[in-house]
Structures are given as structure tokens and as C-alpha cells.
Amino acid sequence: MDEVRVRRYKKFLAVSFVCSILLLLVTGYYICYTSVPGNLKIRAGTEQTIDFGVPVTGEFTRKIEYPEAIAVSERPDSDIPKSSVSMEMHRSVTLFALYPETYRLQLKLFGFLPLKQVEVQVIEDETLIPAGIPIGIYVKTEGVLVIGVGEFKNAAGANISPSRYLLKTGDYILKVNGREVKSKAEFMDTIAESGGDELVLTVKREDEIFEVKCLPELNENGEYKLGIWIRDNAQGVGTLTFLDERGSFGALGHGINDVDTSELLELESGTLYHTDIIAIRKGMSGTPGEMTGLIDYSEENILGRITTNSPEGIFGVGNSSLLEEITGESMPIALKQEIQEGKAQIICTVDGYTDYFDIEITGLHLNDDNVNRGILLEITDSRLLEKTGGIIQGMSGAPIIQDGRIIGAVTHVLVQDAAKGYGIFIENMLVH
Fold first, then answer.
1. Who has greater pLDDT, 279 or 360?
2. Beta strand residue intervals within 64-220, DSSP E
3. What average pLDDT does the segment 347-365 reach?
């Protein structure tokens, strides 16, 4: 009996040992995988030294558009005219390319175990004017957005839902009977005046556009309805991040999402307005603070045209009023691998004036798992903490400055600690 127990115990130890080794290997692989960013940018015409800090080899491949442009090697003075370059990357290597282009870097752990494919983008160097001013935002959706599908009572008191199984939350209704939908009011008038005739709706659902036939029905008040809730615009207050040399701007550091569907709004048009902050609600643990802005939607208060609403922010072209309002000096940008944990500043507007406020960069996430949360930061400036409690709604887009370079923009606050939050790398806001 004792021999059987001994054998079982030895078997248990052997299995435990194997499982421990496997767990150790998987954990090590995961750590190596997460240590390497999925996307890397370098400046055209500038040597860029990188060190992933893991035992990997890499192979670069690229498009043959500029045969004379490639110089990717372990030596900065090497010019290798090839479409594929292999190298040891367990130590620092220098990358160099003359023209903007995209490379694929296939990494292998210990030279044989596939680890990750990194996209290396060569970009033109750029300088930006940091802003930090509050802005009023108005965006018009493409068609009308369906934010809900439900029931209503007909003349007989029965619950009906004409649009059920035809439309769903997040759909955009672009046309009715072939005619473009310009506004929510116009769409509702079309339904009301339909006389109960069948309507052909052109619908956009994610990347698909199709047609559905809906039959409006009378509700208990004798009005024709489809049983849907819709929206055609959104407004709000945010912070302008930068203005470039061409007069284009970037703001927010995150997209404008619908409050009901949480989906990124499909933009038809948008306008940037001058705004004045009239009140600030201080943030506290568990309750985010908020800036309240007064926006006059008149022609003379327009600062520019919003052309893009993306996960990285809103982007567009400023007018002469915006160019007059942003008078700061241009600054170079810092790529994410150049940012250091430690002291930095944000630019934002409190009490009617725009100023620099001290922060601490407490962490950097170089991976692209969440594009809006690459920078972890904490407000340390006593002036800002006293006035706002930290990061508050309306501060999204405040530029982050370190060592005289723009490194990113504030995007989110930690609800449980208003002094702490996240930011986006500025390089992610330059893709538009």
C-alpha cells in the first residue's frame, strides 16, 4: 500500500513539475509578447535606435517603391538595398529610412519561435502648436442614427412594433424612398405624412448598406409611427490639442460616441465653436468632475470645420479666427519610444486662462490594445487639484508636454481617483 502511495506521489510531483514548467514558459512568452509594441513609428531621414529588451531576431520586409531608400541594420552607416533584412535584435539596433513607407517586422523568440509581427511606419517629422483651449463641438450624423427599437400602442390598444426584426440599434437610415435623409425632423415628417404607405429605407449597418421595407402604423393618438428612436446630432465641450502648420487641428484624443449606443458616430459634417467655461464641478472619488461651457452657435463664433470623427479624436481645418486664437510656438513631437516616466505638464484652460500644469507620467503602455490609454498620468499641480480635483470632463484633448515636446493628449479619468487618468500618444493622432 505504501509503494502505491509513493508511486502516486511521485507521479503527482512529476505532473506538477511539468505543469510548472509549462506555466513558466507560457508566462515568459506572454511577457515577451506584451513587451513588444504592435506598431512602431520612426522619422524619415533620422536614425532611430530601438531595444525591445527581449531575446528576439527580426526580419524586415517592405514594398519596393524606393529601392534606394532602405537602410535598416545594426550599423547606422550601413545601406542595404534589399526588400528583406534579417538581424539579431536582442541588443539595440538602429533603423534608418529616407522616405515615408511601411515595413513589416517579423519577430522570433530565440530565433525560432514566432512571437509577433510589428508594423514599422516611417513618417515625416512634424512640429505642432499645442493649444489647450476649450472648444464647443457640434456634429451632424450621416442620415439619422437608430438608438432604439420598441413598441407602441395602436388604435385598438395592442402593442405593435413595425420595425422589429428590420432595424436595430446602431443602424443609420440614409434614405427614404431613394431620397436622402437630411435631419431627424425631416424623417419624422416623412413618416407622419406617409398615409400608412410602405417606406423603403436605405440602411447602413457597420460596413454594409442595404434596403428594408417598413410599413408605418397608427398609434393610439392617430399618428403614423415606425417604433424607433432616432438621433441626428451631438454637441459637447472638449479641449483642442494642436494646430499644425497647414491650419489643421486635432482635439479630444478620443472619438465622439453616441450616449445610448456607445458606438462611434458616423460623421456627415461638424463644426468647431468658440466657447467660454462658465462653471467647473470638482471631481471626487467615484464622481467625475465636469466643465460647463457656454456655446453660441452663431456664424461669428465658428472656429473651424470638423471633417473626421475617429477613435483617435476629432480632426478638421481651422479658420482665421482659430489661427488668431492659437498664438503659441510650434513644438516637435515625441514618438512613444522616446517618452519617459516622470515629470511632464499638460496645457488646459481654467478660470479663463490657459496655462501649463504639472503632472507625473506613471506608466507607458506601448502596445496598441487600447489606443486611447497608452499614457498613465497623475495630476500633481496643487492649483489644478484645488480647482478641478484632477481630470474632469471637458479636459479631454489637453496636450501633454515633456522636455519641450508634445507627447500626447489627456483622454480619460480614473473614476475612483480623479487625480489619475490616461492619455493617447500624439503619434496616434497624426494618422488623419
1. 360
2. 70-73, 84-88, 93-97, 101-109, 113-123, 127-130, 134-149, 152-153, 159-160, 172-176, 179-180, 199-205, 208-214, 217-218
3. 93
